[in-house]
Amino acid sequence: METFEKTEKFVMRTYNRYPVSFVRGEGCWLYDESGKKYLDMLAGIAVCNLGHCHPRVSEAICEQAKTLIHTSNLFHIGPQAELARLLCENSFGEKVFFCNSGAEANEGAIKLARRYGTELNPEKYEIVAFKNSFHGRTVASVSVTGQGKYSQGFGPMLEGVKFAEFNNLESVEEVVSERTAAIIVEPVQGEGGVVPAEPDFLKGLREIADRVNALLIFDEVQTGIGRTGRLFAYQHYGVEPDVMTLAKALGNGVPIGAVVAKGRAAGVLKPGLHASTFGGNFLSTRAGVEVLKVMTAPGFFDRVNAVAAYLRKGLESIVEEFPGRFEAVRGLGMMLGLVCRFECGELVGKLLEAGVIVNCTAGRVLRFLPPLVITEEEVDYGLSVLREVLRGYGGR
Ligand SMILES: Cc1ncc(COP(=O)(O)O)c(C=O)c1O
């Protein structure tokens, strides 16, 4: 039985999949069963930021897999401790909790916030979140996700979640109070259409959170680990959260999540209050250590930002070359959206057939999240395929 047939027969149909099955990857390139080559400008949705099978990460994983994979958090775990150190020393963080995914990291952050709030006052459990946000698919993370389609039919959602408008501080003032335990926000909304926060917005959120004694949580699951051209997106803004959630690229493909906290937030979760069997295991944290070592090497981000600017310019020239088809290019670093005047799902399929992988988010935003190691030549190739496909495609 072929992969397609087995998937149809035995895998729950929670995804609509393209009829492609990749068997090998190297850098920015993926190869399907027939040997056809694709330029990956999506990186497994902001996961393989160092490219597929980065030699240092793959070697570290192989070595670790042959040595020790799992013992449980009843014992000390060398690579876990090292990854926590690297995360803290390269961010605002003081302490880290490890888990296995973005939703689980946000779940942990929400529990941390509720515990923090209710220890001050039993009524202080509300969370302020944003319209068009995305924080994952567990019940708590979907409860703070500001897009109704994700929670429909799964209710009741968590009590005490208030939604405000992204980039609108007045709307935050309307819902915030002494009962607010936390404000959770993505520095750049990803699934919401690649929308960066305005600098004054994040600064304002910091002030509001401090005024009502609430925690400020930045969901950097998608923006973190280099995606925006710095290790963490908050570093562009000069605003530090109390809590930051990470996942996706932290293991370059090995499942891992993390909750990074400082100050009063760092000491909330005490023994027995929160846990995860797999969280921080040898394999995933060893991958994470290697990822951070590669990214914190001198000059790494100079190169990323040079190519990101090149990609952005290329996309901007496409907006000009195809008048009336696109509205704008937006995003930060290597997290870019080409805002279309048409629903772009079909275009993504055509690009895939032509050998370039991107995706469509929020209906009309063609999203580019290439591995950070993409070169100018690869960008040129990807954009030339995009031009060619656009020439033969009317769109709607
Ligand atoms: C900002 C953000 N938070 C959370 C998540 C959920 O992460 P995961 O799919 O690993 O649970 C995502 C996934 O796209 C995300 O973009």
UniProtKB/TrEMBL annotation:
<dbReference type="Pfam" id="PF00202">
    <property type="entry name" value="Aminotran_3"/>
</dbReference>
<dbReference type="InterPro" id="IPR015422">
    <property type="entry name" value="PyrdxlP-dep_Trfase_small"/>
</dbReference>
<dbReference type="GO" id="GO:0003992">
    <property type="term" value="F:N2-acetyl-L-ornithine:2-oxoglutarate 5-aminotransferase activity"/>
</dbReference>
<keyword id="KW-0663">Pyridoxal phosphate</keyword>
<dbReference type="InterPro" id="IPR015424">
    <property type="entry name" value="PyrdxlP-dep_Trfase"/>
</dbReference>
<feature type="binding site">
    <location>
        <position position="276"/>
    </location>
    <ligand>
        <name>N(2)-acetyl-L-ornithine</name>
    </ligand>
</feature>
<feature type="binding site">
    <location>
        <begin position="219"/>
        <end position="222"/>
    </location>
    <ligand>
        <name>pyridoxal 5'-phosphate</name>
    </ligand>
</feature>
<keyword id="KW-0055">Arginine biosynthesis</keyword>
<comment type="similarity">
    <text>Belongs to the class-III pyridoxal-phosphate-dependent aminotransferase family. ArgD subfamily.</text>
</comment>
<feature type="modified residue" description="N6-(pyridoxal phosphate)lysine">
    <location>
        <position position="248"/>
    </location>
</feature>
<dbReference type="InterPro" id="IPR050103">
    <property type="entry name" value="Class-III_PLP-dep_AT"/>
</dbReference>
<comment type="pathway">
    <text>Amino-acid biosynthesis; L-arginine biosynthesis; N(2)-acetyl-L-ornithine from L-glutamate: step 4/4.</text>
</comment>
<keyword id="KW-0032">Aminotransferase</keyword>
<keyword id="KW-0963">Cytoplasm</keyword>
<dbReference type="InterPro" id="IPR015421">
    <property type="entry name" value="PyrdxlP-dep_Trfase_major"/>
</dbReference>
<keyword id="KW-0808">Transferase</keyword>
<feature type="binding site">
    <location>
        <position position="134"/>
    </location>
    <ligand>
        <name>pyridoxal 5'-phosphate</name>
    </ligand>
</feature>
<protein>
    <recommendedName>
        <fullName>Acetylornithine aminotransferase</fullName>
        <ecNumber>2.6.1.11</ecNumber>
    </recommendedName>
</protein>
<dbReference type="GO" id="GO:0006526">
    <property type="term" value="P:L-arginine biosynthetic process"/>
</dbReference>
<dbReference type="InterPro" id="IPR049704">
    <property type="entry name" value="Aminotrans_3_PPA_site"/>
</dbReference>
<feature type="binding site">
    <location>
        <begin position="102"/>
        <end position="103"/>
    </location>
    <ligand>
        <name>pyridoxal 5'-phosphate</name>
    </ligand>
</feature>
<feature type="binding site">
    <location>
        <position position="277"/>
    </location>
    <ligand>
        <name>pyridoxal 5'-phosphate</name>
    </ligand>
</feature>
<dbReference type="InterPro" id="IPR004636">
    <property type="entry name" value="AcOrn/SuccOrn_fam"/>
</dbReference>
<dbReference type="InterPro" id="IPR005814">
    <property type="entry name" value="Aminotrans_3"/>
</dbReference>
<dbReference type="GO" id="GO:0042802">
    <property type="term" value="F:identical protein binding"/>
</dbReference>
<feature type="binding site">
    <location>
        <position position="137"/>
    </location>
    <ligand>
        <name>N(2)-acetyl-L-ornithine</name>
    </ligand>
</feature>
<comment type="subunit">
    <text>Homodimer.</text>
</comment>
<dbReference type="GO" id="GO:0005737">
    <property type="term" value="C:cytoplasm"/>
</dbReference>
<dbReference type="GO" id="GO:0030170">
    <property type="term" value="F:pyridoxal phosphate binding"/>
</dbReference>
<keyword id="KW-0028">Amino-acid biosynthesis</keyword>
